[in-house]
Amino acid sequence: MNTFYQLQITNYKLRKSSSIFNFRHFNFFLLPFAFLLPFLSIAQEKTKDTTKVNQLDEVLVSAVRVTSKTPVSFSNLSKEELAPRNLGQDIPTLMNYLPSVVTTSDAGNGIGYSGIRVRGSDATRVNVTINGIPYNDSESQGTFWVNMPDFASSLQSIQLQRGVGTSTNGSGAFGASLNMLTDTYSKKSSGEISSSIGSFNTNKNTVKFSTGLMNDHFEIAGRLSTLKSDGYIDRASSDMKSYFLQGTYVAKNTLIKALAFGGTQKTYQAWNGIDAITLADDRTANSAGMFTDEAGNPRFYDNETDNYNQDHYQLHWNEKVSDNWSTNLAFHYTKGKGFYENYKEDADMTDYNLQAVGAITTTDLIRQKWLDNDFYGTTFSANYKNGKLDFIFGGGFNKYEGDHFGKVIWARYASQTELGDHYYDDFSTKTDGNVFAKANYQLLENLSLFGDLQYRNVTYKANSWETGLVDDNFNFFNPKAGLTFDINPNNALYFSYARANREPNRTDYEGGNVKPEKLNDFELGWRYKSAKFQVNSNLYYMKYKDQLVLTGGLNDVGSPIRTNSGDSYRLGLELDATWKISEQWFLQPNITLSQNKNKDFYFARDGVLQNLGETNIAFSPNVIAGNRLTFMPIKNLQLSLLSKFVGEQFMGNIDSEVSKLKDYFVNDLNVSYEIKPNKIFKSIVITALFNNIFDLKYESNGYFYTYDDDYSNPPAITTVEGAGYYPQAGTNFLAGLTLKF
Predict the structure, then answer these.
(1) Whether the predicted pLDDT of 294 surpasses 90
(2) Could you read off the pLDDT of 515-550 as tens digits, one per residue?
(3) How crowded is residue 702: how many other Cβ atoms within 10 Å of its Cβ?
(4) What's this model's pTM, rounded to 2 decimal places?
(5) Which of 497, 503, 501, 452 lies closest to 476, judged by CA?
(6) Measured between alpha carbons, how far is 90 from 231 in angstroms, rounded to an integer?
(7) pLDDT value of position 7
(8) In whole angstroms, what separates CA 444 from the centre of its chain?
(9) Angle CA(570)–CA(19)–CA(119) in degrees, nearest 5?
(10) 38-60 in b/e burial notation, b at 16+ Cβ within 10 A?
(11) How far apart are CA 700 and CA 200, in angstroms?
């Protein structure tokens, strides 16, 4: 049977007067919690700790992960939980039903460019690591899952920590940290072939193998995957390939792993979205690549694509020095190179270093904007454990070097410049070093103390026409502390405080005067656990200074634009639970109620700077809820109804009605059946996923913009507002077959 999500809970009242959410779907999510309440007063029964003994593999992430003894709100996803829905959709989509999570998809079907938000914080604030190695792009701070297609097939487990969490490597966590552990080594040889097909001509093919431990010490394992989809949105196609290869040496006290993994992708651009009128008339419309030919006919450029290749190399050495001491040392290198290509109409030749022949100064052209980068460094940690103390000292040093350049590969009209010459050349470097020390100490039999201190230094240098000359150096001190009180074997209370600081990203510098962000995060939680129930709560208050909130706008490559908001806060209650109703029925509800506010937010409307007072933070719904109802009628057959509600949200920070994104309530049906034949195959697994079974028309993401329209007679400035949307697919399916031998 699958292990279930780690979940959190606590109590507080949400002020109804400031809510922007709609209560009409609440009964579905609150009913499971109502059923749970009577059982919370059951006589306390002592339960066994079912946590498995850590293998040496888990040392790879022990420095950045937390346990139930840590006063942090978190959820775990195991390999077994991911498998039934791992049919081609990206990792954010597979995590959609975790507490406080909202996912987005440009193509509308969870394949290609997708993203994740946690507690209303966008993907640039979610710190992501792979085996403790930073994955976030150093400059944009975002995570591009499209560059790692089918990576879920090589994952052993995922942990999502909400809030600041514990100290980690890479950019600071301002909404969450997500750390992934890749496949452990296998003692026995094995092979696996899996294929899936689905709506929008989606197909995924994966081959995995393991030699098992040869001579009781060496293992070689790997994976090859291909993934293609046309996408729900017009021309939002994806053509992706990936690989994963690892060699392992294991002895009684030693684990050495060498990993190489990566992917290549070509996706047709779908980041333009559509306006409200088009949304009503043609939900799948995509304006990317549109141009007018010489005869005046509208056409679409057939290679309006994003093209990128990324390769990762990691070397890990874990050593158990004694019964109390263990160490981990890692080196890594990532090579990324690629471009996006698009058609530009009536471009000014001087912008592209094209010299006109004659009187013509504008031309249609095809340009490529390239990124060629290297990211490398080291991480390390040492762990000491005895009966009362669990102490970790660690850190890392990483460097990023990136070339940005553009070139014109075709122009309608001739020029005196060679096509292919660079029309801009930018270079940037970023170094990121940190050291931390963290400890859990058992003060009393039922009281433990958590402490965590991190020092982080960041330097960033860039020179481009977009950012200007940047030469910044940041020194951040991030303390964290908390207490966990075990009331009895079934109940525990915890409280924590965490400080976080975060540097701006490349796009932020394009906006001019930008400041680093600061956050004070307070968390109060209660965990209950018995043989059949696991109920957890978490109340959080996240107080920001100069938070870089999303404005709702996008730049010319579809990246979100942010701005410092001064003082702001997020106040919320997270509730989630697991209830084993019977041997056949399981229920896993979760709900987050929150307020997300800017204080004294200033905005220039109609040419006049105004203090709008307290406004809602963009893309921060006041209600996020999920539920997983699982039925196992017979052995090896599992049926799950997955439900997700996301409340109404503003796409900007000025509470404009134009910027409202409607709430939505989506239901998926997941079926998995395993056959265990006596010959040839160890296992045959048949899986199916029916998404959006009630065919809801909804949008999970969008953008909002304003601009000043000047009128000279009479002189006036009028602020114009507009919005765009990313429609999601109606009813669609994925079905797969996995053969294990």
Answers:
(1) no
(2) 999 999 999 999 999 999 999 999 999 999 999 999
(3) 23
(4) 0.90
(5) 501
(6) 13
(7) 34
(8) 38
(9) 30
(10) eeeeeeeeeeeeeeeeeebbbbb
(11) 19
Nearest-angstrom CA–CA distance, 521 and 123: 18
Cα distance between residue 670 and residue 397, in whole Å? 42
Q: What domains, with CATH codes, occur in the chain?
A: 16-182+222-740 (2.40.170.20)
Tell me: the pLDDT tens digits for 343-396? 999 999 999 988 887 888 899 999 999 999 999 999 999 999 998 999 999 999
> From start to end of 632-731, where are the E strands?
637-646, 649-650, 660-661, 664-675, 683-691, 699-712, 715-727
E strands along 269-388, which residues? 290-292, 298-300, 305-320, 325-348, 362-385
Q: Which tokens hold the place of 335? A: 């090579």
| Token pair in block for residue 97 | 């039903």
For the chain, how far is it from start to end, CA to CA, in angstroms?
20
Residues β-bridged to residue 660: 650
Which residue in the block uniquely carries the two structure tokens 């965990």? 527
* Phi, then psi, of 135 in degrees rounded to 5: -115, -30
Helix, strand, or coil (residue 590): strand
pLDDT score recorded for residue 5: 35
Between CA 695 and CA 728 the distance in angstroms is 10
On the 0-12 / 13-18 / 19+ scale of CB atoms within 10 A, 368 is middle
CA angle 656/662/667 to nearest 5° reads 160
Angle at 591 between CA 528 and CA 482, to 5 degrees: 50
Contact 380, 396 (CB under 8 A): yes
Residue whose entry in the numeric block shows the structure tokens 């009895």: 488
Q: State the greatest distance between any 2 C-alpha atoms of the chain, in Å, as a whole number.
A: 90
pLDDT at 15: 37
